[in-house]
Amino acid sequence: MTPHPSLPDWVFPPPEGFVAEDLDHIPDLPAHTELIDGSLVFVSPQASFHMRVVSLLESELRRAAPADLRVRREMSVILGRDQRPEPDLCVIRADADQHAKQTFYRAQEVLLVVEVVSPESETRDRKRKPVLYAEAGIPHFWRVENHSDKAVIYVYELDPGTGSYARTGLHHDRLKLTVPFDLDIDLAEIDRI
Question: In its keyword annotation, does this UniProt entry include Nuclease (predicted)?
């Protein structure tokens, strides 16, 4: 295939697809590009609801996280050779931060991933990403949905027997948990952010 002269070369994937490390070497790649199943996924601009939920959860997770954990926003996670999604939030082990120019974490360094569903990401966030995160062994996954401008959080924990996530809670007004650490978040606070 002859590349179109107005498109950058990276628009055309190599025959075997892209690999996780490619994201660090492709020039002028749009911000927040993800790699799912060897294909580049471009993220659309986020709505106000999405950004307010992420901000609320980020600040509350930071406040509650034990000293040996860190909260990171919009950092990609290498799950495998051709899988490098960028969750909205993740909680990592503190020793996963290696240097200031780091662009990703590895699945084994991640304790929790959070995805806030947007209209363009519904299928990925509801179906594909949970499977990928579970297969990579990430112990906790939260999916946040917008129901009439209110945040609803679906909480999942990895079942070691099946290697898949089991839903452990559905939270409408308040997120109160003891795992992965003690949390008590008033979800109505989204209206004040």
Answer: yes
Structure tokens at 16: 């075997």
What are the beta bridge partners of residue 155? 142, 169
**CA 22/CA 10 separation, integer angstroms:** 10
CB count in 10 Å sphere of residue 26: 15
Strands 150-159 and 140-147: antiparallel
Domains and CATH numbers, the chain: 9-41 (no CATH), 48-192 (3.90.1570.10)
Contact assessment for residue 137 and residue 115, using Cβ atoms and an 8 Å cutoff: no
CA distance 59 to 71: 9
Q: What is the pLDDT of residues 51-99, one digit of tens each?
A: 999 999 999 999 999 999 999 999 999 999 999 999 999 999 999 999 9
Enumerate the β-bridge partners of residue 90.
Answer: 72, 113
> Of 191, 150, 190, whose CA–CA distance to 170 is shortest?
150
The 3 state secondary structure assigned to 139-184 is CEEEEEEEECCEEEEEEEEEECCCCEEEEEEEECCEEEECCCCCEE
Q: What is the token pair recorded at 181? A: 């650490």
